[in-house]
TrEMBL record:
<feature type="active site">
    <location>
        <position position="24"/>
    </location>
</feature>
<dbReference type="InterPro" id="IPR004424">
    <property type="entry name" value="IspE"/>
</dbReference>
<comment type="similarity">
    <text>Belongs to the GHMP kinase family. IspE subfamily.</text>
</comment>
<keyword id="KW-0414">Isoprene biosynthesis</keyword>
<dbReference type="Pfam" id="PF08544">
    <property type="entry name" value="GHMP_kinases_C"/>
</dbReference>
<dbReference type="GO" id="GO:0016114">
    <property type="term" value="P:terpenoid biosynthetic process"/>
</dbReference>
<feature type="domain" description="GHMP kinase N-terminal">
    <location>
        <begin position="80"/>
        <end position="158"/>
    </location>
</feature>
<dbReference type="GO" id="GO:0050515">
    <property type="term" value="F:4-(cytidine 5'-diphospho)-2-C-methyl-D-erythritol kinase activity"/>
</dbReference>
<dbReference type="GO" id="GO:0019288">
    <property type="term" value="P:isopentenyl diphosphate biosynthetic process, methylerythritol 4-phosphate pathway"/>
</dbReference>
<keyword id="KW-0547">Nucleotide-binding</keyword>
<comment type="pathway">
    <text>Isoprenoid biosynthesis; isopentenyl diphosphate biosynthesis via DXP pathway; isopentenyl diphosphate from 1-deoxy-D-xylulose 5-phosphate: step 3/6.</text>
</comment>
<dbReference type="InterPro" id="IPR013750">
    <property type="entry name" value="GHMP_kinase_C_dom"/>
</dbReference>
<keyword id="KW-0418">Kinase</keyword>
<feature type="domain" description="GHMP kinase C-terminal">
    <location>
        <begin position="222"/>
        <end position="285"/>
    </location>
</feature>
<dbReference type="InterPro" id="IPR014721">
    <property type="entry name" value="Ribsml_uS5_D2-typ_fold_subgr"/>
</dbReference>
<dbReference type="GO" id="GO:0005524">
    <property type="term" value="F:ATP binding"/>
</dbReference>
<feature type="active site">
    <location>
        <position position="150"/>
    </location>
</feature>
Amino acid sequence: MPLHLGMLVLVEVGHLLFKRAYAKINLTLDVLGRRDDGYHEVDMVMQSIDLSDLVWLDKRPAGEVTIESTSAAIPVDERNLAVQAARCFFEHTGIAAGVHIQLEKHIPIAAGLAGGSSDAAAVLRGLNELFGTGMSLEELSQVGARIGSDVPFCMYGGTAIARGRGEKLTRIPYVLPMFAVLVHPRLFVSTAEVYQGLRPDDFTDSPASAAMVSCLAEANGQGIAPLVRNALQRVTFDMYPELRALAEKVEAVTHHPVHMSGSGPTLFCLAVTSGQAQRMYNALRGIMKDVYICRFVGAEEVVGQTAAE
Ligand code: ATP
């Protein structure tokens, strides 16, 4: 690759622009109920982690939006959320130009880690810089919300409470120096099917986000794990009993509680020190392949110095 991957957020070479698209995990995911429009009303605490896709943007003539990806598992056409983001950008701004997108995928696909939404958000932030449009993150979020409910969170990243369909954000202005050790079982989980599997007793009127945010505000890393919960976990575990069995195995190996991100199937354990995370990682790597050691990432790192606030 011609670019300096060590630089975290942005490198510009001629017309080529580079962005990192960060994954997220859910520290909480409560479902309040089903809405008349068919969506579910959620209340979640989302946290960016430093597992990231790499996105390069290169100017092209008007109307030309193309993409190539290192992963053969995602579509490289109009179905790709990064392509949809570029189309939305040109439509919204009226700029007569196009873009070629190169995606180096590292975030597991359909894993509950918002990889596609994060790519879309990175493309919108990147195009805003590439074409000097000076849109605020708020405006970019509104454009991104048309692509998917997780895109507004991914636009800012860091830590936030997400409500509504996930697009209504309350940003939490601090990030704990914590770690998550992820296990990605190679299962394909459909988010839509998981939501369809919710029962009335999975819904709650008292989401855990307020307690979680208090814990984060007190910098109480140890207090976080007991508060982590995910209403979708029961559904996904019932749909995939092998995932429940894997979670039990991970818990037995790490001696730490195991949680699921989004609609799954990614599982994670939290660690308050890098040493603790490394020990969990070593233990898990002994028995399985797709294990990732990640640190929590704040919004500053996601949006970088150059984006308009
Ligand atoms: P969500 O929880 O929002 O459904 P996820 O993290 O579970 O997201 P993604 O990795 O975003 O899952 O993929 C969900 C679907 O989106 C997959 O079926 C995939 O083919 C499609 N997709 C479209 N564009 C992308 C992209 N750039 N990266 C990953 N998946 C993409």
